[in-house]
What we know:
Blueprint: E1 7-13, H1 14-23, E2 25-26, H2 30-35, E3 38-39, H3 46-54, E4 60-66, E5 74-78, E6 84-88, E7 92-93, E8 97-105, E9 111-114
Antiparallel strand pairs: 1-4, 2-7, 3-6, 4-8, 5-6, 8-9
Amino acid sequence: MTDRPDIAFKILSRADWRAALAEGRYDGSAADRADGYIHLSAADQLEATAAKHYAGQADLMLVEVDLTALGDALIWEPSRGGALFPHIYGPLPVAATRAARALSVTADGLMILDETA
């Protein structure tokens, strides 16, 4: 039994999300591919991830991922500050996503979601 969440989030460019929808899968960003897995963030990790990696960026998407659909490809591993983060070893199937919303992150790291997207 685990108290880990059933959902996590991936921030990616709108262009990468469009490509993922067309392909049926997301193979990760350049950083993901270099690390050998797709980085996700649990809800309580999301704001820090946005501020650290996406400050000042617009034209992003916040994608909600159903972790239960990933099976053995999902591994929780220590990362920032020793906290466990969800990582996907392999592609993220679009079928494992629940929702996607437009996102921008201010220069000081504040996330702004477009509720209409």
